[in-house]
User: Fold this.
Amino acid sequence: MPTPFPGMDPYLERPSLWVQVHASLIVDIQRFLTPLLRPRYNVAIEQHTYLTFLPPNEQRSGIPDILLASPIDEADEDIAVATVPMVTRPLVSELPMPKVVTEVFLEVRDAVNQEVITVIEILSPANKIGREGRSQYERKRLKVLASFTNLVEIDLIRAGKPFPMKVKQASDYRIVVSRGWQRPKADIYLFGVREKIPDFPIPLQEDETEPVLPLNKILHELYDLGGYDLAINYRQKPEPALAGEDAKWATQILGH
Assistant:
């Protein structure tokens, strides 16, 4: 069954679902691009692993706000001190635990010398919200932008703050196409939850024909083939929730 939304389905942004969608999108984009780029280029799935700390809402705090204790009877105090050693009772708490985060992305490489021509990133909540994950991605992003490697950055997550770019218009989602030979200029595709995801080119070498990626079509086929309609309760609000006119519009197309 197809998604009821014309473009990005905001219900897919729920972290537990987005992990699956992210992985599937990576594979589907690779499968789409490979026949278009071979034999000149190959499209490789790469990953970057790092340690971060679980966000506060995923931790349980064991430190009580108020500690209740029974009063000591003064008549028994001297006897207790004389016969039983004083033992300090510890508080039970939990320490922040590190979490292994694996970020998966695509690289378009020259098939002869394996030079990385284009990096394709699909952002996740860990990239945008987690302090360590965002810091890690920002460093990687700056490293790519300081090189001649092209960068395609796909942001289909409304949560978190967008990464720096000189655009005044706000948007729910954005796609950045940064060609190495045009920097600091980049093509920015801005779109909202009510719009289709725009098709956009994948840059290669300067003056080469750029294949166009129909991301909206790829995502909708992924949704249908993956049976995501069975995993989503459209009577609940998406995460994060829609607001204002977007919320009213979503209620109308969902029929409740």
Summary: Confidence is low (pLDDT under 50) at residues 54-77. Residues 15-37 form the longest helix (23 residues). The helical segments are 15-37, 74-83, 125-128, 131-145, 215-226, 244-254. The beta strands are 41-53, 98-110, 116-122, 150-155, 173-178, 187-191, 200-201, 212-213.
